[in-house]
Design a protein that fits this description.
By secondary structure, this protein is α/β, with parallel strands linked by helices. The chain folds into two domains: about 210 residues, Metallo-beta-lactamase, Chain A; about 130 residues, Rossmann fold (3-Layer(aba) Sandwich), CATH 3.40.50. The protein contains ten helices and 20 strands. The strands form three sheets. Strands 7-8-9-10-11-19-20 form a seven-stranded mixed sheet. Strands 14-13-15-12-16-18-17 form a seven-stranded mixed sheet. A hairpin with a 5-residue loop joins strand 1 and strand 2. Helix 4 runs antiparallel to helix 8. The radius of gyration is 21 Å and the shape is globular. The protein starts with a helix and ends with a strand. The relative contact order is 0.15.
């Protein structure tokens, strides 16, 4: 079915959902998700900056800000809110656990696990007056923890890896490969440097601890704050870790985490193994860049096949592919159309 026919067939649904140029997912009369719109309730799916656009405007305008307890804590800890607005953020924030239902007038919100980063959620909204169920995946990874939203009239799905090029058939083996590289690096150099974005840093810490590695972690300031909050308030356990500026290096083995963007400045002096984590490596689970550096394909997003699988499992009437963020929305839409799903891209 062509996109124009999908728009015509489901034009009544599209009166209740839109994606604005600023990335705001607008649903019903009451809700805006992951971007600012003049709605009484702002929802935040997770604490990544591209999903926090316009949050300070929402704090000023909206009556409530909804997110998981972890996400609300991380927004504050990572300094995403101006100190002048922080009291209003705390006043308007409503923590919502998975499957706890929030009601605003005649519209309901329920969160589902997205297994993307700590605290990340998918959003299910029921518009009771129109008898519509609209789901938004946000960023997600398709694992045994990920919950599939079903019986939807409309599914709004991310498209970060929406091109068939972005498939990682080896993804199940990547955690063990990462463990093996870290063990090799610790044995050979006693120092391993890992470069990743926030969220992926915490995922890697958990992988290493679960895999039996007990070397202390050295963390940049923001990652250290995140680890403290997740341990003290939300039951995570990362073993020994230290803030980078307070660390005293000796002959002990260490794993040093750094932000992904600092990988270009790494020092190849033979004093450590460097591991760069990215979801963009698609044809091999890892690649050796130079004598001291590996790139490893560890992603916290669904790859192309998983995006398609999610839609197949969910089986909604209409799929809206989010085209407001970095990704391959047109390629994903075209594949879904070929598979018989009514699909469009917004905005």
């Amino acid at each position: 079915m062509a996109t124009s026919l999908c728009v015509y067939k489901y034009k009544e649904y599209l009166e209740s959902v839109n994606i604005e140029l600023n990335g705001a997912i607008v649903v019903g009369k009451s809700f805006t998700i992951d971007g600012f719109a003049e709605k009484p309730v702002r929802i935040v799916t997770h604490a990544h900056s591209d999903h926090l656009h316009g949050l300070e405007e929402s704090i000023r305008y909206s009556k409530h800000v909804l997110a998981s307890p972890i996400t609300l804590d991380l927004i504050e800890a990572l300094g995403y809110i101006n100190s002048d607005l922080l009291p209003f953020f705390k006043l308007k924030s409503i923590p919502l656990n998975y499957h706890q239902v929030y009601v605003y007038e005649d519209e309901e919100v329920e969160f589902y696990d997205a297994d993307h980063i700590p605290g990340s959620v998918q959003v299910l909204i029921r518009l009771k007056d129109k008898k519509l169920m609209i789901g938004y995946t946000g960023d997600f990874k398709l694992t045994s923890k990920t919950e599939i939203m079903r019986n939807l009239n409309v599914l709004i799905i991310e498209a970060t890896y929406g091109n068939p090029y972005y498939n990682r058939p080896f993804k199940e083996s990547v955690p063990q490969i990462l463990l093996d590289l870290v063990i090799e690096g610790l044995c050979k150099y006693k120092r391993v440097y890992i470069y990743a974005y926030h969220g992926k840093i915490q995922e890697t810490m958990s992988i290493l601890r679960t895999g039996g590695i007990d070397a202390p972690f050295i963390l940049p300031d923001r990652a250290y704050r995140v680890a403290k909050i997740l341990e003290e308030k939300h039951g995570y356990n990362y073993g020994r870790y230290f803030k980078e500026k307070n660390a005293v290096f000796n002959k002990e083995k260490y794993i040093v985490f750094k932000h992904f963007n600092s990988a270009k400045d790494r020092r190849l002096d033979g004093k450590g193994l460097h591991i760069v984590l990215t979801g963009r490596l698609t044809h091999e689970p890892f690649m050796k860049v130079d004598e001291y550096t590996y790139v490893v394909s560890l992603s916290d997003h669904a790859d192309f096949n998983d995006l398609v699988k999610y839609v197949e499992y969910s089986n909604p009437e209409l799929v809206i592919v989010d085209g407001s963020r970095q990704g391959e929305s047109e390629a994903l839409k075209n594949t879904l159309l070929e598979k018989g799903f009514c699909s469009i891209v917004l905005p």
